[in-house]
């Protein structure tokens, strides 16, 4: 707790530099209590009866500009009082709390003693109740209203600003949404518990709770005052419109946000114990992709007769196509209706097909005209007439209209495509592998542990 003492000393020195109203530490004064206002003398008589202070200081708090009184004793105990004569801070060097403090906060002390082995050494009054300072330098937050331990207060009295230790999204949401300062941040003592949350207490008595994903869970006014109109601008327009119709007076003091995979639910509570609940679709929800398994299996049965396992992945480019990899080195692509769009043999020939996919006369005509070998066939389904795009390993694309007209066009393969096609050609049984790009080259590790490396042009590094 040495840091606590150092901080108090620093605070006092700062105050003294600003304004030093009086100092009653004087050999000519037998009892410094006589220099204090009567209400503080009365408070001391209750808090620390029959103990004579070593010194007293009347100061101006530089943060609030309010008068405060610092009273210290020879055993290391000190009190800080406000002008109303109420104590705001207590520190006990001996770790033996004044009897009056023990009596007033016996329930809180009992809870703390049950949950921690570290002695209580200090108390600070706060917006939520009392912050109990432990010898291990933690500060535990206790609600005097709810009579329960709330958790641990982060960075209490350390001088750190909330933006220095809060997650960015949490700090930004609160600082940009509420016209108030963050006074306290309370977290569970066990950060691994499933309902972990940040509970932020603001200077206007608003409390905002966040989960570990930085989503706000609850906004409430600690004293059940109405939420400001500005808050409703943060809610979905449909929800606000419905709430305005159901509760035009908007005497709302609490709002909860409950997110599920498919919906977001908003619960509102009023000061007269009424409540409303509205649910909207979660805009971040993506329905699960249902592959056209029946169409894919029918295609495999018809053209390949393969019964072994295959790989099916959603195309990263369009999200509405499924790429199927077969253990014979072939890939084919279908749409969500199961209609085939492309088939690629990765230069392994077409002999694996049980029957023709398109007329062999088309393939023969193109191969003879351009002196090449077709390895990929694409059938654009958005064309009004039958059309095929035939590609060879040499990166030429040939358009075939009604099987009579051919047009050649350059279409270079990317380095990734070159590396991928090499693997599918030489290792056809590898139907699922991750081809990553690191430090200017592509690489993958096959199921048998073989490492394949490709340069930035997609060529195998031998």
Percentage of residues in strands: 25-35%
Coarse shape:
elongated
Spatial gap, N to C terminus = 64 Å
Low-confidence stretches: 1-28
Biggest sheet overview: 16 strands, antiparallel
Kindly state the percentage of residues in helix.
10-25%
Assembly state: single chain
Signal peptide: 1-24
Pfam families: PepSY_like
Keywords: Signal
Organism: Parabacteroides faecalis
Written description of the protein model:
The protein is of the alpha+beta class and 462 residues long. 21% of the residues lie in helices and 32% in strands. It is built from 9 helices and 27 strands. The strands form 3 sheets. The chain has a 16-stranded antiparallel β-sheet with strand order 1-2-3-4-5-6-7-8-9-10-11-12-13-14-15-16. A hairpin with a 2-residue loop joins strand 25 and strand 26. The longest helix is centred in the first third of the chain and has 17 residues, at 2-18. The radius of gyration is 37 Å and the shape is elongated. Mean pLDDT is 88; it is low at 1-28. It comes from Parabacteroides faecalis. InterPro entries: PepSY-like. Pfam families: PepSY_like.
Jot down its keywords:
16-stranded antiparallel beta sheet; eight-stranded antiparallel beta sheet; 21% helix; 462 residues; single chain; alpha+beta
Gist of the model:
The chain is an alpha+beta fold and 462 residues long. It has helices at 2-18, 38-47, 99-104, 106-115, 168-177, 237-246, 293-303, 360-370, 415-426; strands at 20-23, 55-60, 67-72, 78-82, 87-91, 120-125, 129-134, 139-143, 148-153, 182-187, 197-202, 206-211, 216-221, 252-259, 263-270, 275-281, 311-314, 321-325, 331-335, 340-344, 374-378, 387-392, 396-401, 405-410, 436-438, 441-445, 451-454. This is PepSY-like domain-containing protein.
């Amino acid at each position: 707790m040495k840091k606590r003492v150092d901080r108090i000393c620093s605070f006092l020195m700062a105050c003294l530099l600003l304004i030093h109203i009086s100092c009653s530490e004087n050999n000519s004064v037998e009892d410094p209590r006589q220099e204090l206002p009567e209400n503080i003398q009365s408070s001391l008589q209750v808090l620390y009866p029959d103990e004579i202070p070593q010194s007293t200081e009347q100061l101006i708090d530089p943060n609030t500009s309010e008068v405060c009184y610092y009273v210290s004793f020879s055993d290391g105990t000190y009190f800080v009082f406000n002008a109303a004569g109420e104590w705001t801070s207590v520190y006990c060097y001996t770790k033996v709390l004044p009897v009056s403090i023990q009596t007033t906060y016996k329930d809180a002390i009992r809870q703390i003693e049950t949950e921690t082995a570290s002695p209580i050494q200090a108390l600070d009054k706060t917006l939520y109740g009392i912050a109990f300072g432990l010898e291990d330098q933690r500060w535990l937050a206790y609600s005097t209203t709810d009579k329960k331990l709330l958790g641990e207060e982060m960075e209490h009295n350390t001088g750190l600003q909330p933006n220095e230790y809060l997650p960015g999204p949490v700090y930004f949401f609160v600082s940009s949404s509420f016209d108030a300062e963050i006074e306290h941040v309370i977290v569970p003592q066990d950060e691994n518990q499933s309902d972990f949350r940040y509970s932020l207490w603001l200077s206007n008595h608003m409390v905002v709770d966040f989960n570990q994903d930085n989503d706000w869970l609850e906004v409430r006014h600690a004293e059940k005052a109405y939420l400001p109109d500005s808050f409703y601008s943060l809610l979905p327009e449909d929800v606000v419109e419905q709430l305005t119709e159901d509760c035009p007076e908007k005497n709302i003091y609490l709002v909860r946000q409950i997110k599920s995979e498919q919906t977001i639910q908003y619960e509102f509570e009023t000061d007269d114990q009424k409540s409303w609940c509205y649910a909207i679709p979660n805009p971040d929800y993506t329905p699960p992709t249902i592959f056209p398994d029946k169409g894919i299996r029918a295609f495999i049965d018809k053209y390949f007769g393969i019964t072994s396992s295959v790989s099916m992945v959603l195309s990263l480019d369009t999200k509405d196509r499924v790429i199927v990899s077969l253990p014979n080195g072939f890939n084919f692509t279908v749409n969500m209706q199961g209609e085939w769009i492309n088939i690629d043999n990765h230069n392994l020939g077409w002999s694996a097909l049980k029957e023709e996919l398109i007329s062999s006369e088309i393939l023969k005509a193109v191969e003879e005209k351009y002196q090449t070998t077709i390895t990929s066939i694409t059938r654009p389904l958005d064309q009004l007439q039958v059309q095929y795009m035939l590609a060879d390993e040499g990166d030429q694309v040939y358009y075939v209209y009604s099987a009579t007209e051919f047009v050649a066009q350059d279409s270079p393969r990317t380095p990734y495509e070159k590396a991928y096609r090499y693997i599918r050609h030489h290792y056809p049984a590898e139907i699922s592998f991750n081809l990553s790009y690191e430090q200017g080259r592509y690489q993958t590790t096959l199921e048998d542990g073989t490492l394949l490396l490709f340069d930035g042009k997609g060529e195998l590094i031998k």
